[in-house]
Design brief:
alpha/beta; 9-stranded mixed beta sheet
Length: 221
C-alpha cells in the first residue's frame, strides 16, 4: 500500500475531536476538491506492506488511542485497508487501541470496506458540496449505508453549500451523526451557526481543532 504519512496527534474533527489518535494517511485520491488542505497526499508517499504499517501503528499507539485511516482517499486501497484493520484488531488489545475511523469522500461504495470484516469500524464520510466542484461525484446510495455509529460531514464555503446540506439532511432518513464545518477563511462561522439554529438542523458544528492549535498548513498534526 502507498502511505503518505503515519503519525500520532489529536483528532481535529468529528465527534472524536480532541482525543489522542494515530493517523495513517494513504496516498492517492479520485477527487480534486477546490479547497483540499492535504493536496500533497495525492501523489507523495512510500510503498509499504501491511505488516510494516501495522508495526508503525503499534509503535505509535498508547493506551486509549483511536486510529484514523485517511487520505487522500483510503478506499482506493480498500483491500490493503481491510487487511490492516484485521491485523490490528487481531493483535493489538482494544484497551490499547480503541475505535477505528475511516475517513472517506463519499464517492466510493462504503460496503467495499464494511462487508469484508466483522470489526466495528466507524465511517466518517465527507459529503462534497458545490464549492468543492466534486458534488456530482457523490454516491447517494452511500447515505443509506451509514449506521448510527458513522458520521456524515459537510464542509461549507457559501450558502449554496449550506443549502446542499439542508437538502440532504431533509431528504434522507439519516441514521448517522451529522457534522458541519466551514472552509477555513471562507464564510463566517457565526453566520452558519445562526442559520443552523434558525433552521433546526440536527448537526454538530465543528472547527478543525488542529488548525487552531498549530499552524493551519502544518503537516503531521
Amino acid at each position: 500500500m502507498k502511505v503518505n504519512e503515519i503519525f500520532r496527534s489529536l483528532q481535529g474533527e468529528s465527534s472524536y475531536a480532541g482525543l489522542p489518535c494515530v493517523f495513517v494517511r494513504l496516498t492517492g485520491c479520485n477527487l480534486n476538491c477546490s479547497y483540499c488542505d492535504t493536496d500533497y497526499a495525492r501523489t507523495e508517499g512510500t510503498e509499504m506492506n501491511v505488516a510494516e504499517v501495522y508495526e508503525m501503528v503499534k509503535a505509535f499507539a498508547k493506551s486509549g488511542d483511536i486510529l484514523e485511516i485517511t487520505g487522500g482517499e483510503p478506499l482506493l486501497q480498500v483491500n490493503e485497508v481491510n487487511s490492516l484493520i484485521k491485523k490490528i484488531k487481531s493483535n493489538i488489545p482494544y484497551n490499547t487501541l480503541g475505535d477505528i475511523l475511516i475517513e472517506t469522500n463519499g464517492s466510493i461504495d462504503v460496503e467495499t470496506l464494511k462487508k469484508r470484516h466483522k470489526y466495528d469500524i466507524k465511517v466518517i464520510m465527507d459529503w462534497k458540496c458545490p464549492t468543492s466542484n466534486m458534488s456530482k461525484k457523490m454516491l447517494p446510495s452511500n447515505l443509506e449505508k451509514l449506521s448510527k455509529n458513522d458520521e456524515l460531514k459537510f464542509v461549507i464555503g457559501n450558502w449554496k453549500d449550506y443549502d446542499e446540506m439542508k437538502k440532504i439532511v431533509g431528504k434522507y432518513d439519516l441514521k448517522c451523526k451529522v457534522l458541519a464545518s466551514t472552509i477555513w477563511d471562507s464564510i463566517e462561522r457565526s453566520d452558519v451557526v445562526e442559520r443552523m439554529l434558525e433552521d433546526g438542523i440536527e448537526a454538530r458544528f465543528q472547527i478543525q481543532l488542529h488548525k487552531l492549535i498549530w499552524d493551519k498548513d502544518k503537516r503531521g498534526v
